[in-house]
Fold this protein.
Amino acid sequence: MMRVKRNQEGVFEVVKHELQHNHPLTRPEWSHLHRSERKISNEKAKAIEDMTSSGMRATESYRYLAHTVGGEENVGHTIKDHINFINRVKSRSIEGGDTVTLIDMIQDQAEEESDFFYKVKMDDEGRLAHIFWRDSMMKEDYDIYGDVMVFDTIYRTNKYELICAPFVGVNNHWKNTMFGCAFISDEKAETFEWLFNVFKKSMQGKTPMTIFTDQDLAIANAIEKVFPGTRHRLCLWHLHQNAISRFGKLKADSTFKGMFNKCLSGCDNEKEFEECWMKMVTDYKLENNDWFKRLYGLKDKWCTALNNGFFSADIRSSQRSESTNHAIGFNANKTTTLTEFYGIYKKTIKQWRRTEQQDEFNCSKAQPDIGYEMAGIVRHASEVYTLTLFKEFNKEFMKGISATSTVIGEHDTTTIYRVTSLMGDRSNEVIFDSSKMLITCDCLKFERFGMLCCHSLRILLINSVQRIPDAYIKNRWTKIAKSKVWDKFGKVSLAEKVSRNIPWRHEITRKFYNLVLRAEKNEDAIKIIEESHKRDSLAIDALNSTKNVDMLTDASSSTKILDPTRSKTKGRGKRAKGHFETSKKKKVGTSNSIQSKEFGTKTPKQHLF
């Protein structure tokens, strides 16, 4: 023990010094907890950063380090040190501003991809209001699968309560594919108009045939203005959830709920729907119910029987987009920064694309197992469609085999058939022109889904047609739907895709690790490695010092933009009233529309070919 005291001259002097310890020494097994024994080296810091960027949580990466060195006492720092270090790294990554860092990351990707597109909108205070981006592969996917799109704005997991608004489609394996994504600050009609216009420009003016959303009135108004030729469909899941809150005492009536669900998606044609709806409102005295009146007025947007003639890939719910949000937000929470969210988003897209590549590989190598020998039109379908879509085709084919058919009219090479299901409860009219190989069915499944129905397959089967007519093979469902895209992106060299230093670092680490494993049981070999490491470390330090590398760089973003205002509320902000929700009219002059400026990449040029 040592005691020090300041004397009259202001100088410290030792007044007592006990050479013998007057307290027990730290136990050897606790010595690693001393501050002097805890340090995160540069090499260890790099490993921790790599594990964090790969998605490992702090506790997971610490456990991994402890496992590799034989226990936490050998790591060289505590779990608290570990978590504090990761938090400092995250704070340092956005010290110039969360939004600026996000835009820098997007601009860096835009420099790497010639067809990358983004657009940023700021409010009158210079804060981020909205941002949209899409990469080059999303543009390619939209060109192939952009006939149907799902758009939803239900997800808000980030520290600013910005709304995540993904544009999602369905690929040829019936899996989600991303067309673009945005953060928006509100759900006003003018915001959606801006976003849809930006999306449309990024896709060179191409618009979807059908778009699915929830019952948000602002979205509906924006779609009508920006996508006037697009069929707007409402999510049946959202509608059903809204309806339950309106049923009142009818919630317990299973007969009523059955009739309501049949009106939503159980009717085959308009006549059947009208009869079912009329019976429901009459039996349950709903003729004067305002909500049911408004719902009926929008029947074209939700009734499946009234949309059979419009291609929708048989999607009935925007929950496909919500599942996207769930996947993106897997590791996100109310404190997630925009930069972190963007990183999570990119990892999710990479995972989707790896899954897609695996599906493409499986289709090129595997044959579907259907329990019987394939021949004729079934074999042709297995050669044309992806494995997932072939399963759907085979279901329709089996239904067609069990159905019965009767000729009800003939004219030249055209024959009209009545096809009846196995149970005999439904029948459809099929018209087949054998000379032109044209076939139509009043169920309109091909028009709705892009694949022949069981009724048409029944008629092709009895007419010994061995191949699906070319007119009824929709390219978006085939194995070769994306073959040209794979060829195009396959020509990009490895040097253009990844930085050379990262693969080298992993390769040299593997070599030295193998060297250590070979030497760890030989004292002479260990001495050689340690002497070599000491000699090489001195040489590399000397080399680096002569280069005088400046590690401090200026912010790359030429546009200074402030972060959005951080939300302090616990719940979600209010949204615009939907189609089926009552709302009061706003007074004139109360609009809070954002006066702003924009910047981003140039709108892609359109080409004739």
About this structure: Confidence is low (pLDDT under 50) at residues 493-501, 548-558, 568-576, 582-595. The CA atoms of residues 107 and 557 lie 8 Å apart. Residues 338-365 form the longest helix (28 residues). The first strand starts at residue 2 and ends at 6.
